[in-house]
């Protein structure tokens, strides 16, 4: 289990690790992925450290998913994708590598955008 003290995303939230911020409100933060699979690949996290969907509270979930359309529209305006995938890995065996809940917003640019 990752504690808040050794969590990369908690360190981004506190400003200890820099990240290119896309969106912020009192409960949610979004920033560009350090290794973008397409241009504008963004991670959306709750400010509260909850590990995965099995831990996610209703309050956190509501705040997070309420922010998603706003963030998607901001990405659409900034990068002009033709589509967007939303992805979430829960548990190491499911591909989760950072154990602070997050959604991947992956803008898509059509065939040949290099993803999927
Ligand atoms: P997961 O595999 O847990 O679904 O996704 C974790 C994501 O976090 C990966 O896409 C990875 O590139 C991203 N990531 C890991 N460390 C950092 C970091 O220090 N800064 C940023 N912006 N993204 C990170
Ligand atoms: Zn965390």
What is the CATH third-level topology name?
HIT family, subunit A
Give the DSSP E fraction (strand runs of 2 or more residues).
15-25%
- Largest beta-sheet characterization: 5 strands, antiparallel
User: Helices and strands: which structural class?
Assistant: alpha+beta
Instruction: Give unreliable regions as ranges.
Output: none
Total DSSP E strands: 5
Helix proportion: 25-40%
Total domain units: 1
- Gap from first CA to last CA: 30 Å
Chemical compounds bound to the protein: guanosine-5'-monophosphate, zinc ion
Motif (Histidine triad motif): 100-104
Protein name: HIT family protein
Domain HIT: 8-116
Description:
The protein has helices spanning 8-14, 58-79, and strands at residues 21-24, 28-32, 42-46, 83-87, 103-108. A five-stranded antiparallel β-sheet has the order 1-2-3-5-4, with helices on one face. The protein has a single domain (4-108), classed as HIT-like (HIT family, subunit A, 2-Layer Sandwich). By secondary structure, the protein is of the alpha+beta class. It is globular. The protein is built from two helices and five strands, in the order αβββαββ. A hairpin with a 3-residue loop joins strand 1 and strand 2 (28-32). Helices cover 25% and strands 22% of the residues. Residues 4, 7, 9-10, 49, 100 line the site of zinc ion (ZN).
């Amino acid at each position: 289990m990752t504690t808040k003290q050794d969590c990369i995303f908690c360190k981004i939230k506190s400003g200890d690790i820099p990240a290119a911020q896309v969106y912020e409100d009192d409960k949610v933060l979004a920033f560009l992925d350090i290794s973008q699979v397409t241009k504008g690949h963004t991670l959306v996290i709750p400010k509260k450290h909850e590990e995965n969907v099995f831990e996610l509270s209703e309050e956190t979930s509501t705040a997070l998913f309420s922010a998603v359309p706003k963030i998607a529209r901001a990405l659409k305006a900034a990068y002009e994708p033709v589509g967007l995938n939303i992805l979430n890995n829960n548990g190491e065996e499911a591909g989760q590598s950072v154990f602070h809940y997050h959604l991947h917003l992956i803008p898509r640019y059509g065939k040949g955008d290099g993803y999927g």
